[in-house]
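Example 3.2
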Amino acid sequence: MKKRIISLILISALLVAALTGCAGNGKRNDRLKIVATIFPEYDWVREILGDRLGEVELTLLLDNGVDLHSFQPTVDDIILINSCDLFIYVGGESDDWAESVLGQAKNGPEILNLLDILGDLAKSEEVREGMQESGHEDEEEEEDEKDEHVWLSLKNASLFCDAIASKLAQLDSDNGDYYSSNADAYKEKLNALDGRYSAAVEAGRVKTLLFGDRFPFRYLTDDYGLDYYAAFSGCSAECEASFETVVFLAGKVDSLGLKSIIRLEGSDGKIAQTVKDATSAKNQTVLVLDSMQSTGLEGIENGETYLSVMEKNLEVLTDALK
């Protein structure tokens, strides 16, 4: 918490400098300027813009693969946000910096906050049995923290695409019907993939996933009625699992007869391997699910899309439930 307060103070200072330096900068021009913080948002906008993508300045803010939870804006980032027409962000605790920027900027952009779009459908981050807590024993109890990983639900993605299409139509009314049509076509693909996920879960032998890692997939597991165990919560800063956590997870692998242990993309897999080594059989497969938290321009250049990543995740999920 102290680190977050210090970060916000620094951002406020950066914001003053940024706004002072660009006070005479004209914000609007004939080309829409859109800034999306993370890859899923960026890709949804690309799909909805369709053939008009070349007529819009679309920027992925976290373009170098930095994780959502550790990102802090530069002065250039603040100027970029202040000068755009539409800013799309998640809106969770990791985006406190965005709230500071948007709260002080004059004539700021239109905004889409994904957690606000979900409203009552937004889930609270939870600490499950066996999960290692971050540890704030010396701090007062904090208010309920929302789970930020809202994009990992295909159902949520459909809601977000509707909101994006509506906002684009507001900003560019001449092409509103086109954006709505593109969103509807894309949602058909999302719904089809959602059906494939449901079928895979229905056909699975087990209904529990076990993560030797952080757990950002609560929206996905809740969508399909899956249970889970994990070393840490989705936004945890912890990277070393305690002996008790490892023993608990290994015991669950044994008692549930799980044939796989999951880690996240970008993880070194050490915790998952340690859990595996602590099981009786020691023969589980370590699988990788991609949370898209750090997908940047390199992934885009390699042809990755939101749907392609979720399709790969479906293949992994199918293996994990065998």
